[in-house]
Specification:
This protein has about 300 residues and is an alpha/beta fold. It contains 11 helices and 11 strands. Strand 4, helix 3 and strand 5 form a beta-alpha-beta unit.
């Protein structure tokens, strides 16, 4: 029988070796549990999110280290590379450990480095999903997200295609990216939506209303570009003071603030460096005080 001291030792061990597991748990779709601090796999590709990484060995090491640190939500997209990120994930981690959720996205095409063009035509979305299934070596994708709503294609057709793919068993859950609350509610009339992925961080809070709405209806909110701090990290700022008190980096505090912002918040900081990955995961071990949270919530760049 486990004793209280055994439990304490286990918790301490997890904090040291698997910090992401200490970030809390969220049930995607009500039954798919993930640790709230995940990993975004965009930066494991080449410059401009184009082509292979400069150091493939490091990219593979980052993915394996993320899982070792307790990450069980990895976010990617067919457009990262394109195709490079998904291929590396499968090479590094397949066969996947139990409980690992691979979320991917479709709906953007890549003419070249740093170029992104929406394509929400049903035929493209279907082809993109089937390509992701092959590259990730999956029979079904746990979470498939529409990367953007293409203004050139009726939104109902795009969401309806994801509904059809779900009915065919190719995807388990549907998510959206860069949407308003009105677009989210429109989509929910067609198919259940379990996550929203919008740009959100200490500096850019334009999706505050979407975060609040997601919390109200139990939808996960995945903030992309979560580590922007801008002038908030300047000496003497609330962010810098919190970092100094906690013996942490400003980036770790920024991630801790996101985790504290809402119980449906699922940050996915990305990197191509094992050292930076380990630093990011340390954010799950920070506890911000009420005054610090208030000061950070009221600041802006």
């Amino acid at each position: 029988m486990a004793t209280s001291s055994d439990t304490t030792m286990t918790a301490s061990s997890d904090a040291t070796t698997r910090p992401a597991s200490r970030s809390g748990t969220f049930q995607i779709g009500g039954h798919l549990p993930v640790h709230r601090l995940g990993f975004g796999a965009m930066r494991i590709t080449g410059k401009g999110i184009w082509g292979p990484p400069k150091d493939k060995g490091e990219a593979i090491a980052v993915l394996r280290r993320a899982v070792a640190l307790g990450v069980n939500l990895i976010d990617t997209a067919d457009s990262y590379g394109p195709h490079v990120s998904e291929t590396l994930i499968a090479e590094a981690l397949h066969p996947y450990p139990p409980g690992l959720v691979i979320a991917t996205k479709g709906g953007l095409e890549r003419p070249g480095p740093d170029q992104w063009e929406p394509n929400g035509h049903p035929s493209h979305l279907r082809k993109a999903c089937e390509g992701s299934l092959k590259r990730l070596r999956l029979e079904r994708i746990d979470l498939y997200q529409l990367h953007r709503i293409d203004p050139k294609v009726p939104a109902e057709d795009q969401i309806g295609t994801l509904r059809d793919l779900q009915r065919e068993g190719k995807i388990a859950h549907v998510g959206l990216s860069e949407v308003t609350t009105a677009q989210l509610e429109m989509a929910r009339m067609i198919v259940p939506i379990v996550t929203v992925q919008n740009r959100y961080n200490l500096v850019d809070r334009r999706s505050d209303d979407v975060v609040t709405h997601c919390e109200r209806i139990g939808v996960g909110f995945i903030p992309w570009f979560p580590l922007a701090t801008g002038k908030l990290a300047s000496p003497g700022s609330p962010l810098a003071r919190a970092a100094a008190r906690l013996d942490a980096t400003p980036s770790q505090v920024a991630l801790a603030w996101l985790l504290a912002r809402s119980p449906v918040m699922l940050p996915i900081p990305g990197t191509s460096s094992v050292a930076h990955l380990e630093e990011n995961m340390g954010a799950a071990l920070l506890t911000l005080g009420d005054k610090e949270l208030e000061a950070l919530s009221e600041t802006n760049s």
